Fold this sequence. Notes:
By secondary structure, the chain is α/β, with parallel strands linked by helices. The chain has helices spanning 13-22, 53-60, 76-86, 123-142, 171-178, 198-208, 229-240, 251-257, 262-269, 278-283, 293-305, 315-343, and strands at 2-6, 26-31, 44-47, 65-70, 90-96, 110-111, 146-151, 154-155, 182-186, 192-193, 196-197, 218-221, 227-228, 245-249, 274-275. It has one domain: Rossmann fold. The protein starts with a strand and ends with a helix. Bound molecules: NADP nicotinamide-adenine-dinucleotide phosphate.
Amino acid sequence: MKVLFIGGTGNISSAVSELTVSKGFDLYLLNRGTQNSLAPKEATLIQCDIRDKSQAASVLKDYRFDIVVDWIAYEPEHIINDIELFKGKTKQFVFISSAACYERPPMNYLVNESCPLKNPYWGYAQKKIVCEDILVKEYRESGFPVTVVRPSYTYGDTLIPYVFNSRKSRWTLIDRMLKGKKVIVPGDGTSLFTVTHNTDFAKGITGLFGNVKAVGNAYHITSDEVLSWNQIIKIIADAVGVEPDLIHIPSDFLSIMSPENRGGLLGDKSVSIVFDNSKIKQAVPDFKALVPFTRGIKKTIAWFQSDPCRMVPDQAFDRLCDDIIDTYMLSVDKAVEYARKKYEK
Ligand SMILES: NC(=O)c1ccc[n+]([C@@H]2O[C@H](COP(=O)([O-])OP(=O)(O)OC[C@H]3O[C@@H](n4cnc5c(N)ncnc54)[C@H](OP(=O)(O)O)[C@@H]3O)[C@@H](O)[C@H]2O)c1
């Protein structure tokens, strides 16, 4: 079976590319070629900027694929372009959406695929929901063969998963730990989340490829290992051999001082959510996530430590953390002083 990935050398998709070729699919990767070292040698590479519509149409005009996976559609126009490119030319189109689309805060902590999609906090999730809506309408009206896949927080070698870290350099968190600096944990750190290793995610999604029952359906694919952020940060610190100095700060406060993180906090990671993976397990009976975070994160840290260029912190984010902590402590000190005056005899 011929499979096209738009993307395919990224944080999640690189592991899926590896498993796809090892399962015997004939894999094509369409991307700009900036990370070709992460592409499996068996894959055929198509160099193209998918945002250049005429280039994409011209490069793809003579191809037919059994399965197309778009890893990098974030905007409604990306999906509209995909429908134009692949309508009548593929048997299955997989849209990589996000588990951030599920209602936040959830009505029930345990979420399955029937739960409403509604995220008032995060534009990223709102746009993914619109993309899903466009695809479902197209499936109903013209039979466009869509399968929606919603990853939750998924990591591999190149991503240290944490709730409040620099997107520019994930090493910033570790750098703070190694220097004995305080590490910010949103809320009291007890909200529950799931981090999934990309090799586990790969087993679930490749099981949906060519699976006729998956067309017209949506699935999330996560680990069943549920951890609090306090546990996650402790496991990361253990992997680098330090005792972390934690400071718990309300997510609302963090969102004021770091508005770009508001969506990811209030609309995702600071709210407890647990995924019921029954649907993917029914569709892909041999799917089972096997990489515990204690093991996966050691491999990630080793990847960073194998090249000093990867261990450079984001100075601006580091300063922001210091500023947030100083400002928060100022308000706490004032509140303590006020409470003492008012209540202490
Ligand atoms: N990680 C998570 O926790 C998480 C959670 C929920 C949902 N998701 C979803 O997962 C998807 C991300 O997958 P990923 O981690 O594999 O992606 P990624 O790490 O962002 O990788 C991007 C891939 O797309 C290619 N690319 C980027 N811009 C391109 C362009 N203009 N034209 C052609 N190719 C381009 C890159 O190669 P070149 O640079 O060489 O072009 C690379 O292969 C997103 O849809 C995201 O919303 C992720």
